[in-house]
Amino acid sequence: MSDMARPSPGRGAAVLKEPDSEGARPSGTVARVVRSVGEDARGIVAPDAGLQRFRLDRFPPSAEVGRMVDRYWVGTWDLRGRPSHTQHVYAHPVVNVTFQDGGPGLVTGVTTAVGSRTLSGAGRVLGIMFRPAGFRPLLGRSLSTIRDVTLPWSAVVADAVADGMARAVAAAPDGEGMAAAADAALARQAAAWVPPDPQPWGRPAALVERARAALAQGYRKIKIKIKKMAQISRLKRNSVAAPPTPTTDHIMSMIRPFWAGSVQA
């Protein structure tokens, strides 16, 4: 059996070439970490047996398309002279676009049943695994409309884009090249599909600041209310005998650790 078909537990986390360090990566983006199949085989039924018959490598997307794409995966196999193999998969609840053996791209919507694919001979397939809702800008309608549906990639993007990507992927010499070719094609179209500047609440740092400000504002409001309650309690105590009431400082000392910890989280 060729090396193409033999699994390598340490493989699958190869990284696409990063842009130059001088400002090439858009601000606010984070390098995507993709775990190898040896570390994360979720969704693959009986992976120990399956990975003796095919190989699965994973590659991260570039920053330009990282808002849409979760990862690229490449399956390769060489079963020439050996029995065919049917692999069952619990697919992630996202959209995948696949290119197999130089053929056109196929879009597979979210599936609600266990999928299966029979492998025979030798071949390879590139999969583009989109993030949850990441395919929505391309499709232009609810993803529920393609649940359990497979359609041509050319039904979603322009024919020139679909054909160009299929040719580039087919011409790539290896799995990393296939992923890089698909990523480059998507990057050229990303600006048209997704606004380049996400909303402020889409940025992690901005989201943290908004949460911090909201918690701090809530802390101030509670402090004001407690002071008012303490003032009313003192007035009542002066006019009618009543049990001692905790002071404002005592109450605040009890809740301050919780609020301070939440604001700093």
Tell me what the structure shows.
- The protein has 265 residues and is α+β, with helices and mostly antiparallel strands.
- The chain has two domains: 196 residues, no CATH class; 61 residues.
- Helix content is 35%, strand content 17%.
- It is built from six helices and eight strands, in the order H-E-E-E-E-E-E-E-H-E-H-H-H-H.
- Strand 4 and strand 5 form a beta hairpin.
- The longest helix is centred in the C-terminal third of the chain and has 36 residues.
- It is elongated and about 95 Å long.
- 25% of the residues are buried.
What is the gist of this entry?
The protein has 265 residues and is an alpha+beta fold. The protein has helices at 47-50, 136-139, 159-171, 175-193, 204-239, 248-264, and strands spanning 55-59, 69-78, 85-89, 96-100, 106-108, 115-119, 122-130, 150-152.
Q: How many DSSP H or I helices?
A: 6
- Note poorly predicted spans: 1-31
Task: Summarize the amount of helix as a percent range.
Answer: 25-40%
Specify the structural class: alpha+beta
Q: In percent, how much strand structure appears in the residues? A: 15-25%
Q: How many strands, which pairing sense, and closed or not: the largest β-sheet?
A: 6 strands, antiparallel
- The dominant shape is elongated
The domain tally reads 2
Radius of gyration: 27 Å
Provide the residue-averaged pLDDT: 79
